[in-house]
Automatic annotation (TrEMBL):
GO terms for biological process: cilium assembly. GO terms for cellular component: BBSome; membrane. Transmembrane segments: none annotated. This is Protein PTHB1.
Length: 120
């Protein structure tokens, strides 16, 4: 997957063994684009948010510090008052939580369920 300012593009890497003189040939096949709710996407990560066993979801951070979570069929925007700037974001699958750094350099941990409740 590749992050652009207004979308996430999904690609499939297809390797054809031994087709060139120096080894394998690799081809990128465009699969799908996910439109983001607004422009200014800064970074993203993917994972089985909500302990989803069937497919990964995306989490996107924006330049204004807001977050967006994308599933295959829907997206949810989350704004936390402690975030005014884009922040590093880490997903911990064992406890289904996100770790992020606030603007005052503190680490905070949010469970997936808690973030979704804030958004709704």
């Amino acid at each position: 997957a590749t992050l652009h300012p207004q979308c996430i593009s999904i690609y499939n890497l297809h390797v054809i063994p031994g087709t060139t003189k120096h080894g394998n040939e690799a081809q990128l096949q465009h699969i799908q684009d996910y439109r983001l709710a607004k422009s200014g996407a800064c970074r993203f990560l993917s994972g089985p948010f909500g302990l989803n066993r069937y497919h990964d979801c995306f989490a996107v951070t924006y330049l204004d510090g807001s977050l967006e979570f994308l599933d295959q069929s829907e997206s949810v925007a989350v704004s936390l008052p402690e975030l005014l700037l884009p922040t590093p974001l880490l997903y911990v699958a064992t406890c289904d939580s996100f770790v992020l750094q606030t603007d005052n350099a503190m680490l905070e941990c949010y469970r997936w369920e808690g973030l979704i409740r804030v958004a709704l």
